[in-house]
Amino acid sequence: MSTSETSRFVRLRVELVVEVDDSGELASSALSRIAEDEHMPAEERLHAETAVKEDDAEALAYLVDPFDLVSKVPGVELAQASWSSEQIEYDPDSPDWDPDEDDEDDVDEDVDADVDGAGGRGL
User: Does 7 reside within a domain?
Assistant: First the structure.
């Protein structure tokens, strides 16, 4: 198949596991990000503030910006982004941990984000 016959779109999958050392600092940063979002309706803002105070995964989701991953990559433009976060039990020595495992069933649970910032988290 030649280059002209292939799609110009590429799906980039990234999975990260992070350790939260300071929930208060994480929530504070997320609350600052929410406060700076001029386009967020008041009702959504109230819900977001409550969520990030109660859940580290929600706070992290408001701070992670998929656009940042590719914004400085030459020759590409972000067409769509989705991401999710969840608290997990993590043991790097466990045989159950497989960073290459493909979780197709989780795709529907991702949060879709518009590139222009009209929806999703962090854009």
Answer: no
Helices (runs of H) and strands (runs of E) counted in the chain: 4, 2
The whole-angstrom separation of Cα 103 and Cα 119 is 24
Whether 121 maps to a domain, the answer reads yes
Assess if residue 66 is contained within a domain. Answer: yes
Backbone φ, ψ for residue 6 (5° rounding): -95, 160
Contact predicate 63/29, CB 8 Å: yes
Domain total of the chain:
1
Structure confidence by residue, pLDDT tens digits, 26-60: 999 999 999 999 999 999 999 999 999 999 999 99
Any domain includes 9: no
Compute CA distances 79 → 6, 72, 75, 84, whole Å.
17, 14, 13, 17
pTM score: 0.65
Q: What are the residue ranges in the chain where pLDDT is below 50?
A: 106-123
